[in-house]
Design a protein that fits this description.
By secondary structure, the chain is an alpha+beta fold. The protein is built from four helices and eight strands.
Length: about 200
């Protein structure tokens, strides 16, 4: 992806990441690829749900202040990693959280959550700050192969603490992927109730 893709309005970047492909080169040379299916935009200083709300600066969020196209990877709940794609220009700490990918090879566990995708694609704090427009750092984003997907837009998940910002429509999902998930749920057999 050209670096210019990332250095734009954060909401636009979050929308247009849907359908792009997240790539990870493993130590053995294999490359894992996952089509991005879900993102959330976080709008920095003005967004009470963002880690940089009010201009907060800590070692943890340092990468958020880099220019668009870098990764911001953080550790949460003492057990999970989550990956964001930094947008905008340097000093404007905004990013798109990657909430889900569809692995392009078979045999992988579900990756329909930010922690799940990081686990499957071996993404952790060592990837914080890497450049996503080049393959040089072993983690990058490529163009997808299909047409731009239709999006489902809704409020973000798990940000009830953020006041009015909690209702902002900044969650973007591939609508076709949502259909697939619903179809799987409908097709699942009902559990039989145990009888005494």
């Amino acid at each position: 992806m050209p670096v210019s893709f990332f250095r734009r309005d954060t909401e636009l970047v979050a929308r247009e990441l849907i359908g792009k492909v997240l790539c990870r080169r493993l130590p053995d040379g294999r490359v894992l690829r996952g089509e991005i299916t879900e993102t959330e935009a976080y709008l920095g200083v003005k967004d009470a749900a963002a880690h940089t709300f009010g201009g907060r600066r800590t070692d943890r969020v340092r990468s958020m202040y880099k220019a668009g196209g870098h990764a911001y990877v953080y550790f949460v709940y003492g057990m999970h990693f989550c990956m964001n794609v930094v947008a905008q220009h340097e000093g404007c700490p905004e990013a798109a959280l990657l909430r889900g990918v569809r692995m392009l090879d078979e045999g992988f566990p579900p990756t329909d959550g930010p922690a799940k995708l990081c686990k499957v694609m071996s993404i952790d704090r060592k990837d914080d700050g890497v450049r996503l427009w080049t393959r040089a750092d072993g983690l990058w984003i490529e163009e997808g192969s299909g047409a731009r997907p239709r999006l489902h837009v809704s409020a973000r998940i798990g940000v009830d603490y953020a006041g009015a910002a909690a209702a902002w429509p900044l969650r973007f999902e591939n609508a076709e992927f949502i259909k697939t998930k619903k179809a799987r749920i409908v097709a699942s057999p009902k559990r039989r109730r145990r009888t005494r």
